[in-house]
UniProtKB/TrEMBL annotation:
Keyword ATP-binding: yes
A Gene Ontology BP annotation from the UniProt entry: regulation of translational fidelity
Protein name per UniProt: Aspartyl/glutamyl-tRNA(Asn/Gln) amidotransferase subunit C
Protein's UniProt keywords contain Protein biosynthesis: yes
Complex and partners: Heterotrimer of A, B and C subunits.
Gene Ontology MF annotations: asparaginyl-tRNA synthase (glutamine-hydrolyzing) activity; ATP binding; glutaminyl-tRNA synthase (glutamine-hydrolyzing) activity; transferase activity
Pfam family, one: GatC
Organismal lineage: Bacteria, Bacillati, Bacillota, Bacilli, Bacillales
Entry keyword set: ATP-binding, Ligase, Nucleotide-binding, Protein biosynthesis, Transferase
Family indicated by similarity: Belongs to the GatC family.
Length: 96
């Protein structure tokens, strides 16, 4: 990949609505170029026989088994509600 230019840094800063000085633009240009150079080292690795992974750890699904259960009725759910109407919880209005 080509080097990051100071104009590109200024353009991205402008898009992000960031005000940066010339010194900061120069500093960010060097830092971003160093990051790109570091990432480019990955292109030197031979990954032909490496199996793609989606996660570095071998995690399994830890969710419970989906089994049907008997739940409480609507009347039981509303039994202790301070205010209810037409089979639903009634709450104070938040819109005017």
């Amino acid at each position: 990949m080509s080097e990051i230019s100071k104009e590109q840094v200024k353009h991205v800063a402008h898009l992000a609505r960031l005000a940066i000085t010339e010194e900061e633009a120069e500093m960010f240009t060097k830092q971003l170029s160093a990051i790109i150079d570091y990432a480019e080292q990955l292109n030197e690795l031979d990954t032909d026989h490496v199996k793609p992974t989606t996660h570095v750890l071998d995690l399994k699904n830890v969710l419970r088994k989906d089994e049907p259960k008997q739940w409480i009725t609507q009347e039981e759910a509303l039994k202790n509600a301070p205010d209810k109407k037409d089979g639903q919880f009634r709450v104070p209005s938040i819109l005017e």
